[in-house]
C-alpha cells in the first residue's frame, strides 16, 4: 500500500543531529519513526523533535507513552467498522493532526544519509503486534474523506507501506485497550548503487495513564519469514495496473483454452462424419 503523504508537514533534518543515549519516555510532542544511515549502518530510529535541539533515539531505549488525554469514542459510523469495536467504545487515539498532551507519532524518510543512498523510497513493514488490544493505523483526508487503513493487527503479516524519498507523514494510531504494546517493524530499501539494505526494530508503547513504561518485555509473537516480507514488499511496489494486467492475462488464457476445446470437438465431429460416410453402403 502507498499512503498519501500528509500535507503541510514540510521539514528538513540536520545531518549533524545527535544520537541520544539513555532511556527516555516520550509522552508529548512530535516524534517520527524512520530509517537512518550512519557510518554504513542502517537502523530504524525514533526522531525526537520535542527535544531541544532535536535528537535521534534508539527504539530499544524509548517508550512512546499515550496518555488518557488521547481517549476518544468510536464513532457511530459504518466507515469505522474496520476498528473492530462497537460505536461508543472508548479507545486511545494518537490523531493524524497534533493534539496537546498527546504524543504525535509519524514517520519520515528524511535522514540526510538515507536521502543520499536510496533510489525511490523505502518499504516500511509491520511484521507483528504484541499487546492487549487491537492496533490500527489509518489515514483520513479531512472529516469527509474515507479512512485508508495502513496497518491493522486484525490482518495477516507482513503489512508493507511504500514510503517515497523525503516523505514526512502522520496518521491516526488507534489502540483498543490500555496496556503495553510492542510493534515489530522493518524497513527495506533499494539503493541508488543497485544494492538492497534492511533494518528492523521493536517499537515500545505504553497506552493509558495506569500503564507503566516497559523497557524490558521481549517481543515473543511469531513473525513472518524474511521471504514472506520480501514478497509482500515486492507486491506493494507493483504498478497500479498490475492487477488489471493479471486479469487480462487470465481472460486471454481462458479464451485460448475455449478455442482449443472447440477445435478438438470440431475435429472429432469431422472424423466421425467421415467414418460414417465411408461405412455407408
Fold and architecture overview:
- Keywords: Membrane, Transmembrane, Transmembrane helix.
- It comes from Actinoplanes missouriensis (strain ATCC 14538 / DSM 43046 / CBS 188.64 / JCM 3121 / NBRC 102363 / NCIMB 12654 / NRRL B-3342 / UNCC 431).
- By secondary structure, the protein is an alpha+beta fold.
- The chain has two domains: 18-236, no CATH class; 241-281.
- Helix content is 19%, strand content 37%.
- The protein is built from three helices and 17 strands.
- The strands form three sheets. A six-stranded mixed beta sheet has the order 1-5-4-3-9-14.
- The longest helix has 38 residues, at 242-279.
- It is globular, with a radius of gyration of 26 Å.
- The chain starts with 17 loop residues before the first strand and ends with a helix.
- Residues 239-251 have low confidence and may be disordered.
Overall shape: it is globular
Helix content percent band: 10-25%
Q: How are strands sequenced across the largest beta sheet?
A: 1-5-4-3-9-14
* Count of alpha and pi helical runs: 3
The string of secondary-structure elements, in order, is: EEEEEEEEEHEEEEEEEEHH
Class computed from helices, strands and strand pairing: alpha+beta
Percent strand equals 35-45%
- Average of per-residue pLDDT values: 85
Radius of gyration, in angstroms, nearest whole number: 26 Å
Q: Between the first and last Cα atoms, what is the distance in angstroms?
A: 73 Å
User: How many domains?
Assistant: 2
Total E-strand runs: 17
Low-confidence stretches: 239-251
Most strands sheet: 6 strands, mixed
Protein name: Surface-anchored protein
Keywords: Membrane, Transmembrane, Transmembrane helix
Organism: Actinoplanes missouriensis (strain ATCC 14538 / DSM 43046 / CBS 188.64 / JCM 3121 / NBRC 102363 / NCIMB 12654 / NRRL B-3342 / UNCC 431)
Transmembrane segments: 246-266
